[in-house]
Amino acid sequence: MVGLKPSDVPPPLAVKMMSAGAAACVADLVTFPLDTAKVRLQIQGEKTMEAAKDIRYRGVFGTISTMIRTEGPKSLYNGLVAGLQRQVCFASIRIGLYDNVKNFYTGGKDNPSILIRILAGCTTGAMAVSFAQPTDVVKVRFQAQMNLSGVARRYNGTMQAYKHIFQNEGLRGLWKGTLPNITRNALVNCTELVTYDLIKEAILKHNLMSDNLPCHFVSAFGAGFATTVIASPVDVVKTRYMNSPPGQYKSAINCAWTMMTKEGPTAFYKGFVPSFLRLGSWNVVMFVSFEQIKRAMMVTKKKMEA
Q1: HEC secondary structure over 227-293
Q2: Which end of the chain is less enclosed by CB atoms within 10 A, N or C?
């Protein structure tokens, strides 16, 4: 099980879900500038960026530097409120429910197969997206929004953004890009959680490390790299499609085809370095925080019961 020692008593579902949501929020606070840089690199080259055609982003740290210079340091946290709202809804489901769904598929048996783990990861990832998609749409649009004089702002606040999207694009606008996002997060979730599970189990099985911070760090870092390689193409399409104004792309597939024909296959790996830096660091912060928050909640629970 993710984040549990073999001797531990499995924590209640509520503890796992709250711990996952809280840990994901901590990870977002630490890594959000990297995520914003990734979004800016992914949408670079779109015609909607012509209003700021003199600005070019080069690499993750170059993008962060350019944003600070042209828009101020606050721009790195555009969409943070929606991002935290997303994690509260999203991570609590996709990470918090993972062990329970895995046990459901195995009938409670130990040592589930890789196929069962993948199936559980895909299931919770898809469930989370279906529920939390509007928060992701608003987050991406805020991150893509440039704070420049002469460039009109699409949204002035998080709640105003939800309202504006609903009024102008309907419910479909709030759930725009759900299909590529489900695809992306099913891939991300099963790769991230399954890889973390397998690396950690292998480390403990061969007594390379004990079940503590170094073990969690190595497992999370490996999971972050594997996830970035698998999910980057879908992630770029998802970002482009969710950020696009009505009518620019007919569908997510049309968005992918347009990218391929106009920018070539390398377009699908735009923002790979910030994606890896973000996912690698996010995984480390999240899993370490998840372990500590969950154990602290279990200690508190036992004290209250006593």
Answers
A1: HHHHHHHHHHHHHHHHHCCCCCCCCHHHHHHHHHHHHCHHHHHCCHHHHHHHHHHHHHHHHHHHHHH
A2: C
The DSSP letter of residue 27 is H
What token pair was written down for 112? 């589930």
SS3 label, residue 301: helix
User: How many angstroms separate the CA atoms of 134 and 85, rounded?
Assistant: 10
> DSSP assignment, residue 225?
H
How far is it, in rounded angstroms, from Cα 168 to Cα 147?
A: 22
Question: What tokens were used for 214?
Answer: 């170094």
Return the structure tokens found at 111: 């040592």
Residue 76 DSSP symbol:
G
Q: What is the pLDDT of residues 11-69, one digit of tens each?
A: 788 888 999 999 999 999 999 998 888 778 777 765 454 545 556 777 778 888 888 98
- Which pLDDT score is estimated for 190? 84
Q: What does the alpha-carbon distance between residue 124 and residue 96 come to, in Å, rounded to a whole number?
A: 9
Orientation of helix 13-43 relative to helix 98-106, angle to 10°: 110
pLDDT tens column, 242-268: 778 788 888 888 888 998 998 888 888
Side-chain half-sphere of 298: how many Cα atoms within 13 Å?
Answer: 17
Cβ contacts of residue 264 below 8 Å, gap of 6+? none
> What is 92-104 written as a DSSP string?
HHHTTTHHHHHHH
Q: Tokens 């589930």 sit at which residue?
A: 112
CA–CA separation, 257 and 263 (whole Å): 10
3-state secondary structure of 119: helix
Q: What is the model's pTM?
A: 0.74
